[in-house]
Structure formats: structure tokens, C-alpha cells
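Hey, can you fold this one?
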Amino acid sequence: MGDDTDDTDDASGAAGDADDEAAGDSLETPVLADVLVAVEELWPESLAETWDQVGLVVGRPDAEVDRIMFAVDPTLEVIDEALEWGAQLLITHHPLLMKGVNSVAATSGKGRAVHRLIEGGCALLTVHTNGDSAVGGVSDVLADAIGLGDVKPLVRAPLGLVEEGIGRVGLLAGPEKLGDLAARVFLQLPAVAGGVRVSGDKDALVRKVAVCGGAGDSLFDAVRASDADVFVTADLRHHPASEAREVRADGKPYLIDLSHFASEWLWLPAAAEALGNVLADQGFAAELVVSQTNTDPWDFILTPGN
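Sure. Predicted structure:
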């Protein structure tokens, strides 16, 4: 009986592998236009802020795309990494051309980026504030990493679902010391020179947490309205942070200030997985990876005693 069972298991496993291979063989390589449809399903352009520049920057809609790389920034180093890997599409969170330009000559950094992409046969697509606002977006991933429940948007999207909008606010499983929370957040992030800065008593207990991947100091009014104990975001400037400490006598919301790059990098693996799933549902297969290039602009930091 034991031998018969083993033979059956082997046969079932072989059949399962054959089924998986057959399913994989049945999936087609998408063209760029197909990928754009999948991206729109996940991160609709209608969710982008009015000042933002999202969507296709470089690329032919009829070009085949079987390798896609995700990155935070479309820097020259990231583009070289994408081309070396053989990507036909680079999806970045930050736009390459946020402001209007009159030339893309290869005499400027942005011009060289455009030339390298076109000459290397790699399209460029930007998913920025639409990727922030959408369900499963940047701030949702940050909230999940921290372990928040009962999560809601800090600022509802005017053209979206009730779950969509900029920033998130939710509850920890139980009260936690500010210093412990900051340490947990630090360990979730890629290593950067600036580390994590904290404003507040490290032994203060916090439960309600507001988050915003990327620069979030324009959201202080919404954070205060949410009655959050602490605000986790990036790029906090001196005056907004100083003023935030003095609005309430108890110093809340406390602040945990992250690297802009690090706070948004967390989204990339989740975004790649989500896009792969949608493409598969639509009958397509592509290889998706996350850039390994650290595009935080700072190389080292000096601190007291260091």
C-alpha cells in the first residue's frame, strides 16, 4: 500500500506540474497597451492629484513587454539597471518630467534618461499620486507594515472609493511606546543614511497612527482632525514640524520622520505582485522585478559623537 500511495503522489505531482506548465504556456506576452490597461485597473489616473504628471512617458503601445521593473525614481542608474536586466518597461513612482520641458537633448540628465530609454527599447511609466491614493497603494502598504487595523484615508479622494485617498490612519493592536514603534518602523525600511527621526517622548504610549508615504507635511490639518497620536511620514521640514509640536499642550501628534525613498520603496514589491496578478487574470504573463538601486540622495550623515 505504501508503494502504491507513493506512486499515486508522484503521478499527481507530475500531473500538477504539467497543468501548471500548460497554464503558463497558454498565457501570452502582453504589449505595452495591455499593461497600461492593467495598470489603469490598479491605479486609475483619475486618482492622481491635479498638479501631478502620471502615465506613459516613453514607449510604443504596440511593443511587446515581457520584462517589467519597478523603482521609486527614474534615475540614470536605475535606467541602466533596467536595461542591463533587459526590461522593456520601467514603472517608477516618481515622474521623470514633472515640469514642462522644451528639449530632451542628451545634454541634460533628463534628456540622457529619455535617450537611454528609447535607444534601449524600454518604456517608462509613472504611477505617482494615483499609486498613493489607490487601495493597496503606498500608504496602505506602509500601514500594513506597521500593523494598523481599521484603516481609513486621511483625505478622501474626490473621484474614488471610500477607501481611496491620500494618507491613512488606523489603530495599533494595542498601546505601544513611541520609541518601540519607531524602532519597528526603522527595521521595516531599506537602509538609508538619514535613518529615522522622532519627535516626542520615547516612552509615551501611542495607539492611533496616521501615515503618509512620501512628503506629508501638507496633511497636518487632516492628521490633527483624525486625533492621531503619531504621524509617520517623510521629508518633514523644520517649521511645519516645530509648529505641529506646539499646537497641542501634550505635543501630539508625535512625529516619525522617514526617508522619502525608503517610505515609498515598501510599495514596490506589493505593486509588482499586484500587476502580475492582474496581467495573469487577463491572460498575459510577464516577468516582474523590483530595482535594487537605492535612490535615496544622501550618502552619509554626521551626528553628535559620530
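Residues 1-22 have pLDDT under 50 and may be disordered. Let me know if you want another pass with a different chain boundary.
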